[in-house]
């Protein structure tokens, strides 16, 4: 008996221009374009195995070893259905292809980092899911086509199908056919760029991204200003900064956009607070580091950004990493007073113990 099984893994991505707001909640079409960096090390990844078998009675999913319901008409069901439709096309063209589209699937996924804690588990999770089913079904599709499917699982997931610097172009069409991710530049274009992930808390967030952004769309006037008058120019400017490897501009825009995203969360009714005191202290530390560096004529050294949670991601160039890691560890050592776990991961060629 043949075994039809495939495993795929996808890393998280951390946005510099944040996606926050849907114009279509079913298709997951955003109210603004966004741009992120996909992390390339093994610290923050989802690994998903999918198996199709004639004996399976329904589609089933296990997340970190616990079974999760696949809700009818829900995001997971939509992604699986889209991929089965593409498999049918393969079977229609090739009479020898096994009829996997008629079998149910069992899917098992593990995250090697906290789930639903503001570290983008929905991004790596749905990207890995879509990639594993695409592999199982031997689909002849481009990463952008897969990204359109991953988008319907979790918006941010569409960007994790690419490495390096990635834009999710919001598109204008009602059917979502022009809303998918594209590569802005591969990681090799700017290999000096690193991301430090500072885990301030690995608790599950109080307000999920999905619920939070929906409330923002319904209640925040600031969001309307942001999507019309702020994000389009920032998207253009940050793409140019990446192309030119202009860290000062990249960092300035990244920090501005993190700040505005959290301002928009605060402008939501009732307000949403994703950052905590530790998050704000890390911002103060980076601001002071940059102030001193700019005053000394050396330019900006680090850019903080926060997703829907208290954990900091710090973008920095390789030659400044050691200083930033030391500084961060000095102010927020493992045993620090906040009684929060605080660990540090480095993206790029090194991990903290073996930095340049
Ligand atoms: P995060 O900040 O971690 O992305 P979200 O609130 O956006 O948090 O999404 C968390 C949800 O994403 C989880 O409750 C789960 O439904 C889904 N998810 C997380 N990891 C995976 C995975 N590996 N496979 C499938 N779905 C996942
Ligand atoms: C703050 O992609 O998790 O991380 O589409 O509802 O699943 P859903 O939301 P999700 O939102 C991510 C929000 C963010 C910013 C970003 O990643 O761009
Ligand atoms: Co998410």
From TrEMBL:
MF terms in GO: ATP binding; diphosphomevalonate decarboxylase activity
Matching InterPro entries: GHMP_kinase_C_sf, Mev_decarb, Mev_diP_decarb, MVD-like_N, Mvd1_C, Ribosomal_Su5_D2-typ_SF, Ribsml_uS5_D2-typ_fold_subgr
Catalytically driven reaction(s): (R)-5-diphosphomevalonate + ATP = isopentenyl diphosphate + ADP + phosphate + CO2
Pathway stated in the Swiss-Prot or TrEMBL entry: Isoprenoid biosynthesis; isopentenyl diphosphate biosynthesis via mevalonate pathway; isopentenyl diphosphate from (R)-mevalonate: step 3/3
Residues covered by the Mvd1 C-terminal domain: 195-356
Keywords carried by this UniProt record: ATP-binding, Lipid biosynthesis, Lipid metabolism, Lyase, Nucleotide-binding, Steroid biosynthesis, Steroid metabolism, Sterol biosynthesis, Sterol metabolism
Name of this chain's protein: Diphosphomevalonate decarboxylase
Organism whose genome encodes this protein: Botryobasidium botryosum (strain FD-172 SS1)
